[in-house]
Amino acid sequence: MSPRTARATRLGLTAAATLAAAALTAPAALAASPAPAPASARDHAATQRAMNEAVKDGVPGVAAQAKTPHATWKATAGVGNLETKKPRSAKDRYRVGSITKTFVSTVVLQLEAERRLSLDDTVDKWLPGVVHGNGHDGRRITLRQLLNHTSGVHNYTADDDFARTYFLKDGFFEHRFDKLPPRDLVAIATSHEPDFAPGTSWNYSNTNYVVAGMVIEKVTGHAYGDEIRQRIIEPLGLHATLVPGTYPKVPKPSSRAYGKLAMTATGPTYDVTELNPGLASASGEMISDSGDLNRFYSALLRGGLLPRKQLAEMKTTVKVGEVRNAGYGLGLIERELSCGVVVWGHGGGIHGSNSEAVTTADGRHSLAFNFNGDWSGDTDAVIEAEYCPKPK
Hey, which of 76, 214, 244, 349 has its CA 20 to 30 A from 103? Predict the structure, then answer.
């Protein structure tokens, strides 16, 4: 997600920049990616140049890793601390924002594979009366519609009071450690009218995944973060990945995170590293690093986390009409790049952090990276440079 498209919803819990403001049209076809070049023939110089350009554009620093079957490329640009000028590390942990959504969707689909729930279940079956008010009706919304953002449930991070309290300078420094349980976040959303009737359109709403996390807890009897740990983090050995709950710090190794805390990209820069990520809940509270994200998305696309039927459901996309060559599945974004390569993944932002993680359809070529500033830089350019490199 580009911070410029999400200035008013700074928890970044929005989709990748290209999806943030788009509307639903028709189902997108699933395309196969051309086979990636062997590592010996791959040159990451274009990716490094794109990272350097992001720093020139104002991003403090970039940390990235690319993985193929033959090699892992690790690189940085810029600094991790504006005061000390300490450089970023390719092993930095960082807040991943909406990339959390793919983890949450994976758990929901695992529960479907275990026949503990159905994607066609209504929200009210599991959370009676929770999504209700001002036209919201959980009896008419399915779990599938939550996961692909066709539910019409209003986005709580778009609420004006919420934005003033948590995204702008005066509110952020007073309230960044506030604790709001998921039900309170949903109540903010349902204080507004729905965006549309369920299943009739598309709009990215962080509330959808807050509710999905609550469903996981109701079905399993465990916190959604515990399910992610037991089902994904521990089996894959994602040692840098965690669901922090209300813990406000980012464990080492890590860099500082910076934001403008304003509706513009100019003005003072603030250190926004520490906050209560529980304000994002299941829509975007996780922490990880680039190596772990590459391992996760590669395993997911190669069938290591979901049976074939559930992976196919996750990859069944709705076309995002205002954006060419992009579609949204169940917590998974498909995009066709300029050279025809198709990548799958998700973007995510939260205060001071803008991240992307993508992989090819066969899971053999993965890229994950983070900007430690939320007001500038072109994440799409870095992805294009890695998969569609052009001569200097």
Answer: 76
